[in-house]
Amino acid sequence: MELITARSALFGPYALDLRSGELRKFGTKVKMGEQPFQILLILLERPGEMVTREQLREKLWANDTFVDFDHGLNSAVQRLRDCLSDSAGSPRWVETLPRRGYRFIGQVEWSEKALSSEILPQPAGNGEKNSDNTAVPGAVLQPYARDGNRALGARVAWVVAGLLLLLLAATVIAQRVQQARSVKRARAIRSLAVLPLENLSGDPAQEYFADGMTDEVITMLAKNPALRVISRTSVMQYKKVHRPLGEIAKELGVDGILEGSVSRTGNRVHVRTQLIHAATDTHVWAESFDRDLSDVSALQNELAQTIAKQVGANASVSGEPEKKIRPEAHDAYLLGRYYWFAEDYEKSLEYFQKAINLQPDYAAAWSGVADSYCASVASGIFPADAVMPKAEAAARKAMELDDLDSEVHRAAAAIQFFYRWDWEAADNESARSIELNPSLAENHHLRGYVLSALNRSEESLQEDRKSMELDPFVRPWALGYSLLRARRFDDAVHELRLRSEAQPNDASLHGMLSEAYFDKGMEKEAEQESEQSMRLNDAQQLADEQHRIYTRGGFQAVLEWKLNRYKRSAAKRYVSPIRFAEVYAQLNRKEETLRYLELAYEQHAPFIPHLQCDSRFDFLHAEPRYRAIVKKIGLAPTF
């Protein structure tokens, strides 16, 4: 009897079926030629070992075959890399050993199952009898053989059955051992990065949908307090970047990586995901989900609960049925978030409003409206009085619809902090947003602002440290700014210099470092960092002009020049009076500084709550007008 062994090699999202010669990624077949298949098979059979070019030649080409061997092998290996989304420069699976050969560098697991190619015929009665009239299970009836042959056949059948049982038991044990190892690895995952889901829709215009799904999965997972989940901005830099997962995990400081793909056809969405233990680059769990677009929220909830169980965390997300969201409303919402992250707040507001028009009880869309208005004020596009009442109304509506949404509470906290100056409410709402979603960096950053204004500097620093830990790329200057507000100028310079060395092309870091140098009285360094910030923002002419002015008149001349630029801009668009007050304070011009601070109070300008945290205004502490502003804002005096 011939035994056929069905054997598969599993590595990352890939499975290579040795019987059919098929390669699949997340269950989807990857087109692969015979030579790449043979090369992959040879490498997989000797993981971690070098396979020489000559060994591959002997396997792939007969001695009497005349080919350009070097070109043929190089071409076949490149086709293999294309199938695996691998690269020679940053290999994840196949490493080139120059002029010698290749090596498979990933973790591979084998799945085996023994199958019989022959089906044993069953007896018509109760089975053949042996001498004591007991039945022989599974015996093959051979009516024309002699008794001796029948006895021999029975013994062979027993031996084969025993071997099959042993092999089956060994397979089960091996599977249990592998499962135990996977569970052990999963239990070690306490921090997670969700890499951008790959868009497999075949339509580049659907990128927003893949990005939006990634963001929503992150948000859902981040609700679990036992799991630290890296925020969206930090993971998005790895979109379409094929690098070893171990490197990515090390850069983000996580134990696990969730990667996968999403495809959308009509009103159906298909998501494939897999969980990787980063330290060993080994597969822990994988699953596919197929849903109607109206069930996307339920899909995300199910995914989050499944992953929580895999890593041994409590599934804190709701197990209740999710509200049905109309696909076209969800689509508009995802476009709103897409433009919101791109800082096009006018466009984001348009799509959030469209989502509300399609589905008035869509809480996330109302929250998006509040976020768009708040962000437009914080970035100086609109005066607060013009749009913050609209933001407040949207946040209130969102909270009525879903009081368990952390982003709703963060929006409410922002309104109380930046506009209403209700410090108790800002404190409570910012704390509630973290309670509902402890892994969202934005929640910790805003709470850092609130605590800083309340003169709770150490707590504020802790929140910004947490924010940086969760999302080191969205605001690399956040901890430095927090240290400045705490008047720890040396620590701020040290922190910002370290960050700018790691991210030299981040303009915001150089801008904040310029402020830190100014606070330390290092005007030359302050000008250099300000100039560098401009150049990185593609403002070459302004940077050149500032450099000439500094050379002729020093830093004071640069401040006067900046003041005149603000005045010219204010003739065309809104410029927050806080900006004028900051520059006048740096120029040590008391009267103008007080006048613009009073105007900022009247306009509810954002960031006036940090009035007492800004060392540039320290020279005003004895002034009754300054003290009156602090009192009217409702802050406890620190002078």
Which key features would you list for this structure?
Rossmann fold, Arc Repressor Mutant, subunit A, disordered N terminus, 639 residues, 5-stranded antiparallel beta sheet, alpha+beta, single chain
Tell me about this structure.
Among the domains are: 3-111, Arc Repressor Mutant, subunit A (Orthogonal Bundle), CATH 1.10.10.10; 135-185; 191-310, ABC-type transport auxiliary lipoprotein component (Rossmann fold); 576-639. Helix content is 55%, strand content 13%. It is built from 24 helices and 16 strands. The strands form four sheets. Strands 11, 12, 13, 14, 15 and 16 form a six-stranded mixed beta sheet that branches. The chain has a five-stranded antiparallel beta sheet with strand order 4-3-2-1-8. Helix 17 (478-485) packs antiparallel against helix 18 (489-502) and helix 23 (590-602) packs parallel to helix 24. It is globular.
Fold topology:
Elements: E1 3-11, E2 14-17, E3 22-25, E4 28-30, H1 34-45, E5 50-52, H2 53-60, H3 69-83, E6 94-97, E7 101-104, E8 109-116, E9 128-129, E10 135-136, H4 147-187, E11 191-194, E12 198-199, H5 207-221, E13 228-229, H6 232-236, H7 245-252, E14 256-265, E15 268-277, E16 282-292, H8 296-310, H9 327-341, H10 345-358, H11 363-378, H12 384-401, H13 406-420, H14 423-436, H15 441-453, H16 457-470, H17 478-485, H18 489-502, H19 507-519, H20 523-536, H21 540-570, H22 577-586, H23 590-602, H24 624-633
Parallel strand pairs: 11-13, 11-14, 12-14
Antiparallel strand pairs: 1-2, 1-8, 2-3, 3-4, 5-7, 6-7, 9-10, 14-15, 15-16
